[in-house]
Amino acid sequence: MFRTIIDAFKIKDIRKKIFLTLLFLLIYRVGCWIPCVGLNKDFVLGDGSSLGFFELMNMVSGGALSQGSILALGVSPYITSSIVIQLLSVAFPALERLTKSGEDGRRKLNFYTRITALVLSVAQSIGIVVSFAGQGIFDPNLTAVMPEWLVGMGVVILLTAGAMFTVWLGERITDLGIGNGTSLLIFVGILSTAGTSISAIVSACFTISATYIWYLVIFFAALILIFAFIVWMDGGERKVHIQYAKQIRGRKIYGGQSNHIPVKVNATGVMPIILASTLLTFPQLIISIFWPNVTWYSDWLGTNSWLYIILTALFILLFAFFYSKITFDPDDVAKRIQQQGGFLQGIRPGKETAKHLGKISNRITLFGAILLAGIALVPSLAFKAIGTIDGASLLINAFSVTGLMIVVSVALELEKQLSAQMFMRNHKGFLS
């Protein structure tokens, strides 16, 4: 990967895209430190642990939520809206037709995604304001001269505007930079959160006790192992070989070669984990807005509770199969193979091929889902065991498998994208 980045800097066009990307990322990180007018900075900074079910949002935004920043929501509303639109495109034929309508259909889907992101931004902003309204989240200087509801309305407007500005930055990176703008914003945010936690552990080594260095050693050892496992899992695939029949056209013979369909072990990526955590934490958001005094849900289904861990594992398995059905359709693949004159050795074309591909996909998905649930739950189980140790919370903040999987996935995708752009440039004259 480092070799790819070095080679990319040698090409002027790609180097310009990289510098533009870095500029947009810098603007985003600066915005994450601009305080939101109306919020009590001392409260937000001093009680960041009270974020509760907003922890994932805080991690993705690079700690902007705990800092009371104007970009506190980050890209979370846009990510959620993308998932919602993608799921609805399976349920509603009109949206499904848009996914197959080329560039015009993609533009309409992007418009619907932005509108949904705007609605979710407003809902999440209201959720934040209502959840912490009674805990002194508002700036006392403002509440002294105007009612709290008016300050809260201003905070909702600013947070929503910040979220949509973040969406705009991501689109600019995709259009003018090296691509995958939203993913890169998440990538930078997670690295910033991990860096803050690591620096806190290093500081504790000098100010509290030297024994905190062991937390850092444990973190980096686990980090290397999980990185290696995620990369291995991401590259794992089952190759289904296809044989194409020979066709005689005039005096020439076409076809006769073989190819393969790669069925990836982790084709769904980190999506099942995100969907599972969203499904379990969304009711807590609703309860905190309408019934702020109700605590039974957070007591029984709070993060790292046993019931939360068990349900997370089950939902990851469920969503892995659900998302696999969206990304890989055996009937469609079998139809395209038959139309191109291909067949699987020993399998009849058509329904038998679709049935065989479906069986392979289900087995691979089950194996990948078990691995995904395992690496998602190991940290929770481990930290339940060491949760009584002083300083374990610092390690927990830096050690999020969801974050690590996103970081690895984005890094691998970035390397592939840079390689593809260099390949297209080097072969542009030949292809044209």
Describe the structure.
The chain has 432 residues and is mostly helical. Helices cover 71% and strands 5% of the residues. It contains 19 helices and five strands. Strands 4-1-5 form a three-stranded antiparallel sheet. Strands 2-3 form a two-stranded antiparallel ribbon. A hairpin with a 2-residue loop joins strand 2 and strand 3. The longest helix has 36 residues. The radius of gyration is 24 Å and the shape is globular. About 3% of the residues have low confidence.
Short précis:
With 432 residues, the protein is mainly alpha-helical. Helix content is 71%, strand content 5%.
Overview features:
three-stranded antiparallel sheet; two-stranded antiparallel sheet; mainly alpha; 432 residues; 5% strand; globular
Layout of helices and strands:
Elements: H1 2-9, H2 12-31, H3 41-46, H4 55-60, H5 76-91, H6 93-99, H7 102-132, H8 140-143, H9 148-176, H10 181-207, H11 213-235, E1 237-244, E2 247-249, E3 252-254, E4 258-264, H12 271-290, H13 296-301, H14 306-327, H15 330-339, E5 342-343, H16 351-386, H17 392-398, H18 401-426, H19 428-431
Antiparallel strand pairs: 1-4, 1-5, 2-3
Helix pairs in contact: 1-18, 2-9, 2-10, 5-6, 5-7, 6-7, 7-9, 7-12, 9-10, 10-17, 10-18, 11-18, 12-14, 14-16, 15-16
